[in-house]
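Incident review: delayed structure delivery

Summary: a single-chain prediction request sat in the queue longer than the usual turnaround. Root cause was a stuck worker, restarted by the on-call engineer. No data loss occurred. The affected request and its eventual output are reproduced below so the record is complete for anyone auditing the incident later.

Affected input:
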Amino acid sequence: MAEGTLNIELREKTGHHAPKALRNEGRLPGIFYAPGEEAIPIHLDAKTFKRLNQQEINVYNVIFPDGKERKSIVRDVQRNPLTDVITHVDILGIRLDQKIRLSVGIILTGSPAGVKEGGILEHLLREVEIEGLPLELPEHLELDVSELNIGDVLTLKDIPVDKFKFVTDIHHAVANVITPKVIEEPVEEELELLEGEEGEGVAEEGAEGEEEKSE
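Output delivered after worker restart:
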């Protein structure tokens, strides 16, 4: 389990325009909370958080202005729907001796045997919620799909677990290899029939033209 460090500041102004002003200064507004404690408005360096958030870090050492450190996890990240820029973060204080639930990504490894035969690999589940002690949770999960033939399906049950468990049903499909859809081409008889119908249409139009001339 990789860890990161976040230095936070207490957010004194919490009005409607305060978060926007902080973001203009390169700061990221957020909330720190823990079970049985009052939520604390905070802000932190936006670039630092963005960099750490891209490194699959699950547990953070959050350092308060007075030097106090708290083990924490990022519970929620809000983004601008148009620009995808992070606009707000919720940080949850945790205890290392208490189990937590966390969403982690699923990475597929290997080249499926079925793909070599013309099949198509489908990655059906890319993220899953797991439960365990904070420092025993992995950054991500890996599933080897090398032996996957056409028609085979791998589920969460096929991912080895050690010190954590899945919150989601272990029979949930993660990946499979399917047969590609084949577009059927018209057979020769169908083509001849279509050509015959087109010829008849042209003949009828010609006949109608002759009748108009004779009138």
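Verification: Residues 109 and 142 are 7 Å apart (CA to CA).
Action items: add queue-age alerting; document worker restart procedure.
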